[in-house]
């Protein structure tokens, strides 16, 4: 077989290369329970092809992991994406694994994070309790994004705030993790919230 330089790909794709004008970066973490849409959200909003660490779920996880109908893969380390806010400012997105047995990886993912998005599925609000508790313990500011699954129940904001035991200043927004514009709006809400905390 004749391999020439034109036959092989080395380095990142041209559209994935970091702009030379970039001079600052901030880190945001997308968190939530198993199967709430974190990988989908990072993939929807990232301007580069996202890095994912999804693995096929096997029978070894039966009785250990949550079992969601139709879900065949799970994140085992992180998801990674990037958004250029301006020519100089880059936003790095890190999606965490949702299964509790992988939560030890959160320590490194949260290092240096400016803030977080907690993605919530109203069909399983209880999987969000520990996630929010961990953020509060670490002092990481966050917003809550309700991923609007088609068959998920809808609740008034005050009911959700009470159920999740959220202080009044923490924003709660609706989100469709499949939609780039919807995910962008969630991140803008987080940026505005972080800005308000800095004043």
TrEMBL record:
<dbReference type="Pfam" id="PF03029">
    <property type="entry name" value="ATP_bind_1"/>
</dbReference>
<comment type="similarity">
    <text>Belongs to the GPN-loop GTPase family.</text>
</comment>
<dbReference type="InterPro" id="IPR052705">
    <property type="entry name" value="Gliding_Motility_GTPase"/>
</dbReference>
<keyword id="KW-0378">Hydrolase</keyword>
<dbReference type="InterPro" id="IPR027417">
    <property type="entry name" value="P-loop_NTPase"/>
</dbReference>
<keyword id="KW-0547">Nucleotide-binding</keyword>
<keyword id="KW-0342">GTP-binding</keyword>
<protein>
    <submittedName>
        <fullName>ATP/GTP-binding protein</fullName>
    </submittedName>
</protein>
<dbReference type="InterPro" id="IPR004130">
    <property type="entry name" value="Gpn"/>
</dbReference>
